[in-house]
Amino acid sequence: MSRAHDINRSFFPFGNPFRMKSPRGTKITSQLLLVSQAFEASLEERLKKLIPESKDEILSLSWMTFAMRALSESYDDIKTLVTELELPVNDWDEKWIDVYFDISVKLLDICNVFSSELSRMSQGHLLLQCALHNLGSSSSEQYGRACSSLDGWKQHIGSGNPRIEKCRNILDGLLGSLDLPKVKKSAKGKVLMQAMYGVKVLTVFVCSVFAAVFSGSTKNMLDLDVADIYSWASSFKSLQDVVNEEIRGRFSSGRFTVMNELESVDSSVKELYPIIQGVVDPVKMESHTKIVEELGKSTEKLSQGLDLLAKEVDSFFQVVLAGRDALLSSLRSGATVIHSNMGVNRNAQIVS
Asked: How far apart are CA 103 and CA 171, in angstroms?
């Protein structure tokens, strides 16, 4: 898969399978068109809501939680779409099903990676709590303990997670899912594939942002070039531009972390070091007390944010898992598929 220095390559070199004039026998009816437009309108609205009003909102745990929730809601929309299309499993191309299972495995894998990193960051909460407890005293001995706890927290957060290294390969696989076999002889299949393209674009974007934040590196960042034929394309481009620009700016500034809540805790820790190490007279309790209070607030906000995001990642994991179970059940019974995470074939270029 390409990196930042590679030449842009098209994931769709053979033309547009969703052109307005479909081949004979696959014409999209007005009813199907309305279904497709309703889906795209919902996706566009979701993308607009993800565009932050302020750059300060980007890379906050609350924004990341909202982004992960948007993924779950989008896959729920696909579930509704498949029900409306009444597209039975026996109408699915064998390749669709194979690709579906392959993609869903990748999504489950990346959810597990994200969950492990969120758990690792949450484990640092105890060290911060120990530091806050010892900072409640003016004893030099307890100050020393507080300093040790804060040092331990910084080392823990900065130590990295080996599992994050898997993200690049998983993202490469998800990118490949944007370039699948053409849909033939099925108007309903075309509507489903077109809808799934939008969901897959959102999925790759959100997962790449998470991977970049958790890895502390731009190597997992991706820039998708979406064709303008979609009503939601402009909103997606605006979202991608503002988020990716901010991420790159933060990485280039050499910050300890690019995540807002972690940055807030680190800022308080830096202010406290001169006091707890005796560089500044600890008798100046007013300033000391205020900084400790700020650290306490930042610590609690970080802990709560990590918990909420972890729950959303788990919810998305369950959505994907339920989709696999539903397809397996449908394959056994020959019933209508009630959920899908399948990828799609579309015009897309990638620079990473």
From this structure: 10
Distance of CA 178 to the CA centre of its chain: 17
Residue 87: what pLDDT? Answer: 67
Between CA 99 and CA 344 the distance in angstroms is 10
Question: To the nearest whole number, what is the mean pLDDT of the chain?
Answer: 80
- Any idea what DSSP says for residue 336? B
Residues linked to residue 349 through DSSP beta bridges, in sequence order? 10, 225
Q: DSSP readout, 250-302?
A: HHHTT-S-SSHHHHHHHHHHHHHHHHHTTSS-TT-HHHHHHHHHHHHHHHHHH
Separation CA 280–CA 212 (nearest Å): 37
pTM of the model: 0.82
Summarize pLDDT for 319-331 with one digit per residue, the tens: 998 887 777 676 6
Per the model's pLDDT, the better-predicted residue between 166 and 25 turns out to be 166
Write the DSSP string, 91-135. Answer: GS-HHHHHHHHHHHHHHHHHHHHHHHHHHHHHHTHHHHHHHHHHT
